[in-house]
From TrEMBL:
This is Class II aldolase/adducin family protein. It comes from Butyricimonas hominis. Pfam families: Aldolase_II. PANTHER family: 3-OXO-TETRONATE 4-PHOSPHATE DECARBOXYLASE-RELATED, FUCULOSE PHOSPHATE ALDOLASE. SMART domains: Aldolase_II. Residues 8-184 form the Class II aldolase/adducin N-terminal domain. Keywords: Lyase, Metal-binding.
Length: 209
């Protein structure tokens, strides 16, 4: 059962992500698995000022809204990631400032591991080509990218991160943005961690789960 308390909590988290500066206006969307259902921000809604009336209650398997609210057009990849990964309960699409700059770069970084937080908290970032928002091609590319990754950079579009809960996702999104800020502000004069150091951090990450 989806309760009013669940919807209020979802709205509070959406506002939290907005306050963190992760999106402008309607540029982001959010989903949260609750049992066999998922709460999804409504199409065209603004996460920073989301209200309960703009939250769709969807069946995770069918993707259909059960409360008459039309979910975000990106709900296909939100629910698709949840179907593919039982460990994922929250999916966030956002467009933070520096990560979106990197998404628009002609030559994307080969590695985002500029600080230890990236391999430890974010993991390897999948980079996918540009596809039209809301398209089946975009949805499938994100789903495919997130089978083995917790973060995806969508070229000329934005970012997607997933995780077990809202804190996990917020941390992942903020460290993703921090890495991109370092990459952009350094004007390419940055150094990434060595392969051995990255592997050690990945092992620490896996052991901490």
């Amino acid at each position: 059962m989806i309760t009013e308390e669940s919807i209020e909590y979802f709205v509070t988290q959406a506002h939290r992500y907005g306050e963190a500066g992760l999106m402008l206006c309607s540029s982001g969307n959010l989903s949260w698995r609750v049992g066999e259902k998922a709460l999804v921000s409504g199409t065209g809604s603004w996460l920073p000022v989301l209200t309960g009336e703009r939250v769709a209650v969807c069946d995770v398997v069918s993707g259909l809204s059960e409360n008459g609210v039309r979910p975000s057009m990106e709900s296909v990849f939100h629910l698709g990631v949840m179907r593919e990964r039982a460990d994922v309960n929250v999916v966030l699409h956002f467009q933070s400032e520096y990560a979106t700059v990197v998404a628009c770069m002609k030559e994307k970084p080969e590695s985002f591991n500029v600080t230890l937080e990236v391999p430890y908290h974010v993991g390897e970032i999948a980079v996918i080509p540009y596809y039209c928002p809301g398209s089946p091609e975009l949805a499938q590319a994100v789903i495919d990218g997130m089978r083995e990754h917790d973060a995806v950079l969508m070229s000329n579009h934005g970012q997607v991160v997933c995780g077990k809960d809202f804190d996990d996702v917020l941390q992942r999104a903020l460290f993703f943005e921090m890495a991109c800020r370092i990459i952009v502000q350094s004007r390419g004069r940055y150094e990434v961690l060595g392969k051995k150091d990255v592997e050690n951090l990945k092992r620490l990450r896996l052991n901490s789960r």
